[in-house]
Amino acid sequence: MSSLNFKTSARNQFGGRVSALTKGAVNSEVILDVGGGNQVVAIITNKSVDNLGLKVGAEAFALIKASFVIVATGQGFKSSARNQFSGRIKSCEPGAVNGEVIIELPGGQSVVAIITNESIRSLGLKAGDQATALVKASHVILAVV
C-alpha cells in the first residue's frame, strides 16, 4: 500500500483494507484490517463513507493522534474502547509534563501514546512491560489516497 501523499500530525498511521462496513441511520462503523492480526475500528458519518468511496476491500488509512490513546496495564479490565492494541512497551520517555509511550504490537507495528508523567509513574510503565493502547472508535480519522 502506498504511503500518504501529505504530512499529518497524527503519530499513529495505519494503512489497510476495509474488512467490514456497517451503515446506521447517521454513522457507519468501518473496520480496517491493518495487518499483523490487527484491526482498527472507526465510527464516521455516512456522508464521509460516501465522500471517501469506502466499501469492503477499499484501501484506507486510519489516523490516530497520540493524545487520543489511553494506556492500560494488567489483564481482565473492561473498556468501552473498540480499539484495544496489546503489546510490549518499546520505550517510555517522560517529558516536562507529558511523556511518550510507544507500544510495539505483534507483527511489528507500534502505537504511540502521549500521557502525563504522573500516569507513567502511577502505572509503573517501563520498556519491556505488557500494555494495552485504548482508542475510542470515534477518535479514529479515516483517509484515502
Question: What would your notes on this structure say?
Answer:
- This protein is mostly beta strands and 145 residues long.
- It folds into 2 domains: 12-65 and 137-143, RNA polymerase II/Efflux pump adaptor protein, barrel-sandwich hybrid domain (OB fold (Dihydrolipoamide Acetyltransferase, E2P), Beta Barrel); 66-135, Beta Barrel (OB fold (Dihydrolipoamide Acetyltransferase, E2P)).
- The chain has 2 helices and 10 strands; from the N terminus they run E-E-E-H-E-E-E-E-E-H-E-E.
- The termini are close together.
- The model has no long low-confidence stretch (mean pLDDT 94).
Helix % is: under 10%
The third-level CATH topology of the largest domain is: OB fold (Dihydrolipoamide Acetyltransferase, E2P)
CATH homologous superfamily of the largest domain, by name?
RNA polymerase II/Efflux pump adaptor protein, barrel-sandwich hybrid domain
Provide the structure class. mainly beta
Topology:
Blueprint: E1 12-23, E2 27-35, E3 38-45, H1 46-52, E4 59-64, E5 70-72, E6 83-94, E7 98-104, E8 110-116, H2 117-123, E9 130-135, E10 141-143
Antiparallel strand pairs: 1-2, 1-4, 2-3, 4-10, 5-9, 6-7, 6-9, 7-8
